[in-house]
Protein backbone atom coordinates (compact mmCIF):
# COMPACT_ATOMS: atom_id res chain seq x y z
CA UNK A 1 0.00 0.00 0.00
CA UNK A 2 2.81 2.40 0.85
CA UNK A 3 4.54 1.82 -2.49
CA UNK A 4 1.28 2.56 -4.33
CA UNK A 5 0.83 5.75 -2.31
CA UNK A 6 4.39 6.85 -3.15
CA UNK A 7 3.77 6.20 -6.88
CA UNK A 8 0.46 8.07 -6.72
CA UNK A 9 2.07 11.06 -5.00
CA UNK A 10 4.86 11.05 -7.62
CA UNK A 11 2.39 10.98 -10.53
CA UNK A 12 0.24 13.62 -8.83
CA UNK A 13 3.19 16.00 -8.38
CA UNK A 14 4.24 15.44 -12.00
CA UNK A 15 0.70 16.20 -13.19
CA UNK A 16 0.55 19.37 -11.06
CA UNK A 17 3.87 20.63 -12.42
CA UNK A 18 2.73 19.81 -15.98
CA UNK A 19 -0.54 21.71 -15.45
CA UNK A 20 1.40 24.68 -14.06
CA UNK A 21 3.57 24.67 -17.18
CA UNK A 22 0.51 24.52 -19.47
CA UNK A 23 -1.14 27.40 -17.58
CA UNK A 24 2.05 29.48 -17.85
CA UNK A 25 2.24 28.82 -21.60
CA UNK A 26 -1.42 29.78 -22.05
CA UNK A 27 -0.94 33.01 -20.07
CA UNK A 28 2.19 33.76 -22.10
CA UNK A 29 0.29 33.23 -25.37
CA UNK A 30 -2.55 35.45 -24.15
CA UNK A 31 -0.05 38.21 -23.32
CA UNK A 32 1.51 37.86 -26.80
CA UNK A 33 -1.95 38.06 -28.39
CA UNK A 34 -2.83 41.20 -26.43
CA UNK A 35 0.46 42.93 -27.21
CA UNK A 36 0.14 42.03 -30.90
CA UNK A 37 -3.38 43.49 -30.92
CA UNK A 38 -2.06 46.68 -29.32
CA UNK A 39 0.73 46.82 -31.91
CA UNK A 40 -1.78 46.38 -34.73
CA UNK A 41 -3.86 49.24 -33.34
CA UNK A 42 -0.78 51.46 -33.08
CA UNK A 43 0.24 50.60 -36.66
CA UNK A 44 -3.28 51.29 -37.91
CA UNK A 45 -3.32 54.59 -36.04
CA UNK A 46 -0.05 55.68 -37.63
CA UNK A 47 -1.19 54.50 -41.06
CA UNK A 48 -4.40 56.53 -40.85
CA UNK A 49 -2.52 59.51 -39.45
CA UNK A 50 -1.57 61.78 -42.38
From TrEMBL:
Membrane-spanning residues: 12-32
Lineage: superkingdom: Eukaryota
Record carries keyword Transmembrane helix: yes
Keywords in alphabetical order: Membrane, Transmembrane, Transmembrane helix
Protein name in the entry: Uncharacterized protein
Organism field: Argulus foliaceus
